[in-house]
Specification:
Structural class of chain A: mainly alpha
CATH architecture of the largest domain in chain A: Orthogonal Bundle
Strand content of chain A: under 5%
Distance between the termini of chain A: 36 Å
Strand content of chain B: under 5%
Helix content of chain A: 55-70%
Shape of chain A: elongated
CATH class of the largest domain in chain A: Mainly Alpha
Radius of gyration of chain A: 20 Å
Shape of chain B: elongated
Strand order of the largest sheet of chain A: 1-2
Number of helices of chain A: 11
Number of domains of chain B: 1
Structural class of chain B: mainly alpha
Protein name (chain B): Zf-HC2 domain-containing protein
Order of helices and strands of chain B: HHHH
Radius of gyration of chain B: 22 Å
Organism (chain B): Tectimicrobiota bacterium
Largest sheet of chain A: 2 strands, antiparallel
Oligomer: heterodimer
InterPro entries (chain B): Anti_sigma_zinc_sf, Znf_put
Number of strands of chain B: 0
Number of helices of chain B: 4
Largest sheet of chain B: none
Largest interface: A-B, 63 and 48 residues
CATH topology of the largest domain in chain A: Arc Repressor Mutant, subunit A
CATH superfamily of the largest domain in chain A: Winged helix-like DNA-binding domain superfamily/Winged helix DNA-binding domain
């Protein structure tokens, strides 16, 4: 049985959430919880909202960059997300984690917005398109790029190719891949965030991964002497 | 591609994510022992996921942060 890929392998993309005000408790530093900050905002201290900004602005910006690929678009997504979060904070009941609620807003903003000056791909990805074929890419053995240590594979060019592959994915597939494989959301959290079934998350994720695999395969095949 | 290969191809992500039930898992693992093509396909997909998880983006520019905070402060008042 494989060790499930948990996301903990990602050591380069996660940001440490900046700590908010801390209180000392029995010698330990304890963060103010998001919920405590939200209560302060809702009880008439709107400036406390900036503490939530400090905690999550970098994460939402990164999500915007992964989804849109351009600073300008990521900035718009960031601003619209936090403006909406501030407007609707009174409606946040704490049933979900604040972070997930924020991503739900960001995802909704993202789905609605159009990338500036960018063609937005819109097509269905069928598994049949991506099945390895006899005359195509049926691998006879594990390809080198899957065998080498990951750090040897992660060149600047590969990172660029990955960004290009992401940009070529239709948005409904891209957002699932970004949430699951880059932002560390579980299948259940992704389904909840996007308001779709877990089966749909799994289906879109698999197709998106295969699409990216195909693009990476093309790149590595092209490099072969 | 035979039926076993097709089944594995459809469920590779769930296999790698540990989301299959025991029966499906056993079926896929017994197929994997016999099929080098599927083993290679699976290795490439696993590596793709690792590459995705290593995807880094630039930090938020100071200017973007400043604009955001200004916008929010304007709405706070």
């Amino acid at each position: 049985m494989p060790m499930p890929l948990t996301g903990d392998e990602d050591c380069g993309t996660r940001e440490i959430v900046r700590a908010g005000p801390v209180a000392e408790k029995e010698g330990e530093l304890v963060d103010s919880s998001d919920q405590q900050i939200i209560e302060r905002v809702n009880q008439g201290d709107p400036a406390a909202f900036e503490e939530l900004l400090e905690r999550y602005e970098e994460k939402i910006f990164h999500f915007g960059m992964r989804m849109c690929g351009q600073v300008e678009d990521a900035r718009d997504l960031l601003q619209e997300t936090f403006l909406n979060a501030f407007r609707y904070l009174k409606g946040f009941r704490g049933e979900a984690q604040f972070k997930n609620w924020l991503y739900k807003i960001a995802s909704s903003v993202c789905i609605k917005m159009r990338r500036k000056g960018k063609f937005e791909p819109d097509f269905e990805i069928s598994l049949d398109q991506l099945v390895p074929t006899e005359d195509g890419e049926v691998p006879q053995e594990i390809p080198d790029w899957a065998l080498e240590p990951l750090e040897n594979v992660l060149s600047k060019e590969v990172r660029r190719r990955l960004s290009e592959a992401l940009a070529l994915l239709p948005k409904e597939y891209r957002i699932v891949l970004v949430l699951r494989d880059m932002e560390g959301f579980s299948t259940e959290e992704t389904a909840e965030t996007l308001g779709i079934s877990e089966a749909a998350v799994k289906s879109r994720l698999h197709r998106a991964r295969l699409f990216v695999r195909h693009k990476l395969h093309e790149y590595f095949q092209g490099r072969k002497p | 591609m035979d039926e076993g290969c097709r089944k594995l191809f459809e469920r590779m992500s769930e296999y790698l994510d540990g989301e299959l039930d025991l029966k499906e898992l056993a079926d896929i693992e017994s197929h994997l022992h016999l099929c080098h093509h599927c083993e290679a396909c699976l290795a490439a997909l696993r590596r793709t996921i690792e590459v995705c998880r290593s995807h880094s983006v630039p930090s938020m520019p100071t200017e973007v942060r400043r604009e955001l905070h200004e916008l929010i402060r304007k709405n706070l008042s």
